[in-house]
Design goal:
Elements lengths: L12 H12 L6 E6 L8 E11 L2 E17 L4 E12 L2 H4 L4 H15 L4 E13 L11 E12 L8 H15 L19
Antiparallel strand pairs: 1-2, 2-3, 3-4, 4-6, 5-6
Helix pairs in contact: 3-4
Length: about 200
């Protein structure tokens, strides 16, 4: 995809509506979420957040979500909005050697979207699992195993930009699932937003 110049016109109302949902989202208590600068060359309009999954004071996972918007549409997206994410967490070493892990990792995304009835199109992405062991002067470092999901999809938002909340909830579940946490039971919603300072 080539570089896109930044527009000088006022932001589209549909994008403002979606960004408002992003800013008003209620997150699971394990997530510490903050806004970050968004990429400037991928689409005319964009917004981004990052999140850490914190359990008992330990950082057990991390992720990023970028919302892209091109009012003229994008043939690769089959729409005017696109969600782009990555999620990464440490996992048990045995999981990394499981040949089914990439398929399971991808299902974490699609299941999260389905569970929140977040309609989408044109999904794409990769699931990567790696293990590392340190040697020499770094031999005291513990062995590590990680899984990383990089994905994008076109959210089915209405013409006014409404409908992003279900995708945000699905993304939160994806981060927590990658980090080994169970999904929230049906009907349970977070009580307060939690954002990093």
């Amino acid at each position: 995809m080539g570089a896109t110049s930044r527009p000088t016109d006022p932001r589209p109302r549909a994008f403002d509506r979606a960004v408002a949902d992003l800013g008003a989202a209620l997150w699971r208590p394990e997530l510490v979420v903050e806004e970050i600068p968004s990429p400037q060359r991928i689409a005319p309009y964009s917004a981004a957040i990052t999140a850490d999954v914190i359990v008992s004071g330990d950082d057990v996972g991390t992720g990023r979500l970028i919302l892209l918007h091109d009012p003229a549409g994008n043939s690769a997206w089959e729409g005017t909005f696109r969600c782009v994410t990555f999620a990464r967490a440490d996992v048990d070493a045995e999981m990394v050697s499981d040949p089914l892990l990439p398929h399971v990792g991808w299902s974490w995304l699609t299941d999260s979207l389905a569970n929140h009835e977040a309609g989408y199109a044109e999904p794409s992405g990769t699931v990567t699992s790696v293990s590392s062991e340190s040697f020499g002067q770094m031999a005291d470092e513990p062995a590590r195993a990680e899984v990383e999901i990089r994905a994008s999809w076109t959210p089915e938002l209405d013409a006014g930009g409404n409908g992003l909340t279900a995708h945000l909830e699905a993304w939160a579940d994806l981060l927590c699932t990658v980090a080994g946490l169970p999904p929230l039971p049906p009907g349970v919603v977070p009580m307060t937003p939690r954002r990093a300072r």
